[in-house]
Amino acid sequence: MFFLDILSGVLLLVGVFFGFTGALGLFRFPDFFTRVHAASVTESIASILILTGLMLQTQFDLNTAKLIFILLFLMITSPTASHALAKSARHGGLLSIPESKKKKENS
Amino acid sequence: MAVLIDLVLLSMLALTALRIIFLKDLFAVVMLFGIYSFLSALIFINLDAVDVAFTEAAVGAGISTVLMLSTLALTGRKEKESKHSSILPFLVVTVTGAALIYGTIDMPPFGDANNPIHQHVAPRYIEQSPVEVGLPNMVTSVLASYRGFDTLGETVVVFAAMIGVLTLLSVRRKEDDEAPDSGLKSHRVLHVVAKIIIPFVILFALYVQFHGDYGPGGGFQAGVIAAAAIILYALVFGLPMALRVISPKFLQILAPLGVLLYASVGIYSMFMGGNFLDYNKLAHDPVHGQHYGIIIIELGVGITVFAVMLSIFYAFASQAERRNVS
Amino acid sequence: MIGVLATVCIAILVVMGLALARACYADTVYDRILGVNMFGTKTVLFIAAVGFLMGRPDFLDIAIVYALINFIGMIAVLRFFEYIAPIE
Asked: Number of structural domains, chain A?
């Protein structure tokens, strides 16, 4: 049990670290598409690590099943939402940094 | 720890509210309202009011956001500049606020064990409901059994809301087939993901419906979640497809059916020699009778809420699409 | 173990605060949506962690609802933008 506790603690802390870097990326990255990248990539790894860490805390019963369900659900919906958002932004005419530079040079 | 979390959440709530006041872009306001609902639901969770948090998350953050967005599609995104001077409203607000704060001075101290609320009916529910009703989730016992008449009233109010919305906005389906860009057609990924997820959402709604006796949940929440599943379908595949799956006519039958199911349990218990909604008379063993009664009326509530939420969404969305086409 | 869970809860609250700041003060609408979406997913994780911190695993049901509602809200917003009120 002791070993599992340590493992779960490590997973939780690493997960939180990734979540934090993702939030930082929301502010620090230069254009929208890189920000989506920062948010979605770190977010999915953070969810995996934190939820797995919590799973090791359970007695492997209904709660574990619920956590697995949440994890699967997030794994499906969260990248989809990021993808759809980026695609929408593209559709709406938002440009990445190299493209907007090129546009400036041309005009 | 709980106090610290409460303080952080409350300060975030206050910041969001202040930001909402100063924003002119109504779309941003709707998004922040979603966050506001999430935050207030988190505070409810922290206060251990799990059922309330459930409802707030499903209704406040889910359905209201969708309905407000549909309204914005009809009215436009920018708030109009007001031409009136703001001194009089400011005075009124200040006076009202001061009166309210003055009113709280008379209230019993927060969290005191001697408050009337902890003395009057709550002890009776806590002590007697395991014997009289026998459900692990006491909130459901109070809501569906002790306060069954109030809940019937709430269900009727929800039903009345649907009648109100449908008299103002009608669901149009004749020309909907001509709508060119209905649904997120270019999003292939979304189509696949929605197809995978929707069955599980409906399954989860059924879990919430029938697990409400044992854990957080019940008819209201389940109805909203099931409606959310169909709304997701309508958003991704387009309103005409959703209208073909569940037609507005069907919903208009379903909504009164739920209310009638609820009321008929009451009438049946009168036939069996009890009072209106006296579940003890439904079976030989009073506790079994309570269980049957609660399951049936929760089902009635769930059906009505599902039908009403979905009809209101249909009404708003079909108006928005018609405007988009013309 | 309680110490680790408490740390995790506080850290997630900080991340939520950052996402909230992004949603409140955004350059473009899409940044705002991104902030709101991130806030939603972090809330799911927060509820799960708080449930374990307080020894109330009932909270997991609500975490599921949050994940679901967050996704539906997101789709509704995108739909609104792409077909009903596109950005100039």
From this structure: 1
